[in-house]
Amino acid sequence: MPEYVTVRVKRQDGLDSPSYWETFRIAYQPRMNVTTCLQQIALNPVTLEGRKTTPVAYDAACLEEVCGSCTMNINGSVRQACSTLVEALRKENPNEITLEPMTKYPVMRDLAVDRSRMFRDLKRIKAWIPVDGYYDLGPGPRISPKLQHQLYPYSRCMTCGCCTEACPQYTKDNRFIGAFAISLTVLFNSHPTGAVLKEDRLKELMEPGGISECGQAQNCLRVCPKSVPNVTGIAQGYRQVTAQWFKNLFSR
Amino acid sequence: MAKHRVVVIGGGLAGLSAAMKMAELNIHTDLVSLVPARRSHSVCAQGGINSVNQVTRQLGDSEWNHFDDTVYGGDFLNEQPPARDMCYWAPRIVDLLDRIGVTFNRLPEGDRDARRFGGTLYPRTAFAGATTGQQMLYGLDEQVRRWEVAGLVTRYDFYDFLGPILDDKGNCRGVTVQDLYSMKIRALPADAVMLATGGLGVIFGKSTNSTICTGAATARAYKVGVKYANPEFIQVHPTAIPGTDKHRLMSESARGEGGRVWVPRKKGDTRPPESIPEQERWYFLEEKYPTYGNLVPRDIATREIFWVCREGYSASPVNYAAYLDLTHLSAERIEKLEGILEIYEKFVGTDPRKTPMLIFPAVHYSMGGLWCDYQKDTQTGGLVIGSPRNQVTNIPGLYAIGEGDYQYHGANRLGANSLLSCIFAGLVAAEGMPQWLKHLPGNTDAASLPQTFFDSEARRHQQAYEQLLRASGKVNPFALHMELGTEMTKYCTVVRHNNELQTLIDEIGDMTERYKQVGLPDTGNWTNQTVRFVRELGDMLVLARAIAQGALQRDECRGAHYKPQFALPGPTADDPAELHRQAQEYCKAFRAQTAQWLKTTIAEYTPEGPKVSYKPIDTSLIPPRPRTYGLKGAAIIERVWREMQTKPAVASAE
Ligand code: FES
Fold first, then answer.
1. Is CATH 1.10.1060.10 what the domain over A116-250 is classified as, yes or no?
2. Prediction pTM value
3. Does the distance separating the beta carbons of A31 and B347 come in below 8 Å?
4. Which architecture, in CATH terms, is B237-360?
5. Is beta strand B369-370 parallel, antiparallel or unpaired with respect to B228-229?
6. What pLDDT does residue B1 have?
């Protein structure tokens, strides 16, 4: 068991500030994760060179990989800081751990980025079930276990943004909606009541920044911490969009 | 366009249901949250949501039974009218969630599946895999997004709530908030404010809670005069995975699906669990509680696990732990638990499908919270729905909903009742808004109050913030927090003793003094997460003091609050006559305890520490009775208790 872990953090003081690196040495604890490293830095914010600095800014909430807050690039791969164990990282690189912010979103400070674009994009695809209201109107539609099994994996998407970070087509300044939103479109379109808005959603996917921007790199599937079947989702999205395109053609 | 504005603080289940319902009623909500709603702590709820369903109804279940289980589980400290209506609304709430697209597990014909949870004998709990809270949170968040597009909700994500704004008559007229990126402080005028800010596990250092559950918002309301009710009632969940940064929850659904808790019969047995033969395993919950088995209520399961470990039966040689064993479950049942098994696998590294999990209790939920009112319907015994008194604190216009309120769970919350209470409280508070907005205090809405009034509040908080930024003492705030967490966990969780609680209070006093000497390792004025944490730490100390004080003063055992010194000895004799006599003694002692302690603790803030008083509670629907859960001697206690109720004159003559 190692005594220390060396953590290199790419830091940035504000939105338009230049970035710089700082290195920290942290006492190793069995089963510690990357969030624990950041907590340890906060407890004693002194660099390897012995220079006093500030605690590192980062997002976190649940610490159990379900809220999607703590996405960052760890040793160059995008993942959740809370569920990445130091022990596993040592197998990748025994000497040090590098932490960098996501690159597809504005860096607010250090490892904290502004992912509000993801939530705005949920509006574009009308990611909701258009129910008639919240009075007692009886149960929802019956749903077969088979359909539930299909839908449940999509509903676990925690808008962490890993899929967008790993996607070569999703950039800081384009409008691509990203794998998560396409998968969620499929989720809402497959729900009996949600299907009411199917045409609106598909229309959005046909717009610039929609599904046709996908370059089929399939990174979204590989990096998703919740195993959301993004590739299947995108394929289904394509089928639905194509069907809609024909429908539009003949109903003109 | 809606004329009035309501501010909701907190984007978890309670805050979202309130915002959603108010939008339907054409009331505008400003939704303020530390994190985007989808990242709120509700997302961590795993097991499910309770309601009577078609199947349980045919097994003899009813809303009343759900209510009775809730109150019995809560050791009669629940406010009965709101708890009653929560249970009566439960089937409707689950239907609503179903309609908004929550991916509940299904049976072959397409109906919702349900599982059994602790403290009941009926399979009442609807669930979506083992991530029910996540699915429900998303469903509600999506409805709120719909209203955001329609212009009836404005979100303020990454904003910290600094405090309510009160006018000179003591009415709440808005809130002061801080943008956590730009650090700008501003006032938001409001015609009503709802605090939906959740729990306080972070006060205990490591808990099952998210890092945002510090209780700071509760403290900020408490400090301006909101009463804080039942602070001492803290639920310690029986089964969590101990960790370096937090203790991760291992849902009660693991036991609901058939998981068994055991330790080796032989003390210090270090063999791997798989190689310990069946007869050398001690299934202590099943042995002691044959009726409920592994599904006794949480407070009982926690104490039993704690006790066997303390007696030397720990399953781990290095720390306290028991086995939670799922290895015998069918693939079908295992599949329903995937979400939580993944968590165990990811964080511990062993496969719980093959090796029993090592678990230990951890702080999980606060039954207590901001005191709030209700209006009782004298006919049903429930609430007058639509009354603006429901969920309002002692400050007019300031409401408390969700884990941050106190009414529903008494001294111990039943599993799968929290999602329910959060949504119910949110809906019920929203239902009261039309009436409230029609008759605002002084017939004045917040929009017509002078801007200078709001500006001066913002300025006051600005000054406090700047002062905190300049704090340059020697005390490390992160180390101080760790110390607070350690002490609170040691003295104020599963087992409590008065001398230790007094020590704890002294220590909190000492820590509060040291907090004044805190130094800020970051004095920047942009996205300064440290200053937010240090401010929260000050508030945690305030609440910790109230929790410890409430615990010290309550000299009894009730639900999660357990003081061995005041435990009522249960009947143990083998001789029937002696057993009967012991049961009578027990019942008499129980009656005396009820008379003295069945009341709500009310803490009021003073700079010197909490002022504690007590308030009677409404037990008009279900009279208190001994809470035994089929323990040895339960039958005789229950019989004697019934005799005492039907023949009070005889009983008191004994
Ligand atoms: S903190 Fe929630 S996913 Fe990591």
1. yes
2. 0.96
3. yes
4. Alpha-Beta Complex (3.90)
5. antiparallel
6. 45
